[in-house]
């Protein structure tokens, strides 16, 4: 009953919103000065499969309390930067690490939905692991030298901005009595989106 | 307040690494100029003027469907040249293209195509719709401030000097007002100041602000910390001339210039506001998370910015003397 | 740095964001995957009326029952629905899907109308069971060229907003008149469910 309904003309109205969320992800790089910094900054922020788990990580850090969020501020961007450098120097593991990213959406969503308080080393280990994996898969073309440095800094900055702003924002929110519930509900949404993404990827649907 | 410096130094350090090498070199921004001259019976004559070390062919052009190019001729039939003209390679091989349309018995019109807006709409009466101008110039303004690291560093310096919301708002507003005044004055041709001394002075303005920040941190008495809007206004006048550099090469017809100027300025303010809000957001985020860097980090960051700005100043001043 | 016109190409990405609205057609062909996925994800949950009212009913019921059901039901639903979607993608056959969806709208509507209250776990399991049917129906809906992540995000946002709408309407229960309105909504939903149920079973 829900099948085979054509996307109608007015649905095009939604396209700008969708584009707004996605456009620059595929804008390719030109080897000139600060371009790589902004390209690096925007690539993860405009790719849903990166930005969704990063948001989850930022929120999860807040759920872990102030210490977790604080250390995450340092650990995650550093891990992302190292991941990007590894991705440029030792390419070839993208396909495998895509699964790491998919797992990160599901796992982080689940942890957020259940609001689990992890031991500090476990949380930071997870953050570093996903940071490396996401950094690695953010490499979009062969860059070297200054360009690579700028691009890496851009991607790491994106990670830093997200975990700093969201971590602090969520920390304020979870102190309200409705706040934790809202954050957990968001976690369940992320988990659900991750499960759908994982399902389509695993079962070989196109576009994954 | 000490906490603010500590975390801000993180940003400063970041910029320091970014700017490290070759900051004083200018980058190549290849611009192509296309002149379209109306002949008879829907025929137009094309003429390219371009320079780029990377390309020896002019950018590719997609004409409206009823036009056929046989360089240097363009046949548009009875309709004439109306409709959308796109240059897909702009923003890639070329930074921008300026297209001048010279119709018979009408004043020439200029259109600017940029990476953000590689298209133009040609109308029969030759006017440029304001939407087209907005689409070209708002992104140009945002781009200009986002890539103008010296402007951003200056704004960052101002943020380090201010205390409290009121001071912040007045300072940023006076910077905005000041650079809008000189941007307008320079673009409309009321005042003409050459690029190079302006750029040297902009570098110097960062040095001055950094020195004021260091003095302020040491607890020394300084005017700028008490009246940061004054320093913002004074140097804002200077930065406005810098912004005008981006507008000066663009051959717009006089009646389109005020609109272009307005939209360019809007773009600059949007970019500046985004930067200020990001920095303030990070400041509050660090405060909430109680994340503070050791004092030497902030010290190193501020001195780093000062060194870079001094390096720029010396480089630009030397270039000024050399010419 | 200011020596020349700063119309630099590499900054295009930011300009692109600003210009997306203006230069839609040029980007559309490149971004079909993500945009298409997001659009179809956003639209699917609102395309079938019985599905739509069942989503709202979940929110209404949760709000009517108060904490912790107010957030537990909407949290359980999308996750289980996603799992149900997996069955759909995998081609696991599920009998009476349309029947199940219509039935869920009817029963959830009745529960709201009757202010039915049971053990929390029982209610969560019940809602979860319905969610599998709803998810399964959407499971094979991803357009061929669309981006799966975008589809998932759009789908979840749309579903979540429907629940939220239900919860917001459901907050009226604080007032006596509002409580009656909420129950009336439930009755309406049950009626819609009943219509689709009869349609699914071939009676109408």
From TrEMBL, chain A:
It comes from the Bacteria. Residues 1-27 form the signal peptide. InterPro entries: HupE_UreJ. The keyword Transmembrane applies. The chain crosses the membrane at residues 37-61, 73-90, 102-126, 147-174, 186-204. Pfam families: HupE_UreJ (PF04955). Keywords: Membrane, Signal, Transmembrane, Transmembrane helix. The keyword Acyltransferase does not apply. This is HupE/UreJ family protein. It comes from Mangrovimicrobium sediminis.
UniProtKB/TrEMBL annotation, chain B:
Residues 1-26 form the signal peptide. It comes from Mangrovimicrobium sediminis. This is HupE/UreJ family protein. It comes from the Bacteria. The chain crosses the membrane at residues 145-162, 169-191, 197-215, 227-247, 259-283, 295-314. InterPro entries: Put_HupE_UreJ (IPR032809). The keyword Isomerase does not apply. Keywords: Membrane, Signal, Transmembrane, Transmembrane helix.
TrEMBL record, chain C:
InterPro entries: HupE_UreJ. This is HupE/UreJ family protein. Keywords: Membrane, Transmembrane, Transmembrane helix. Pfam families: HupE_UreJ. The chain crosses the membrane at residues 38-63, 70-90, 96-113, 120-137, 149-173, 180-198. It comes from Mangrovimicrobium sediminis. The keyword Mitochondrion does not apply. It comes from the Bacteria.
